[in-house]
Amino acid sequence: MAALVGGWVGTAGARFSEFVGFTTSGAFSAAAFIFVGLVVAPKRTNIVKWTLIIPSCLLGVLSAIGKFIGEDKLRMSIGISMAIFSLAFAGVSAKEMFSAGQDHKI
Prior knowledge:
Elements: H1 2-10, H2 18-40, H3 46-69, H4 76-88
């Protein structure tokens, strides 16, 4: 659900151009999926982080491949940005994603 909402919020970038809207939609989807997954996880470990990064990246790659086969090639930017943004989380520790050791609860 978080990825869907994040993707919907990301489409606000379409005010500037269609490409920006697609790119921000993919990036927001990946960020929401990984961040909310870490919030609801019982422990914030790097194993949990990678368990969220890998499916998010794979969904992005599959989305890009699916759009490449279809007619609207510009929509590939959603999957590409989702995959790249998912991999951007690889350099950040799971505990560092939250500010100064504060415990975020929903």
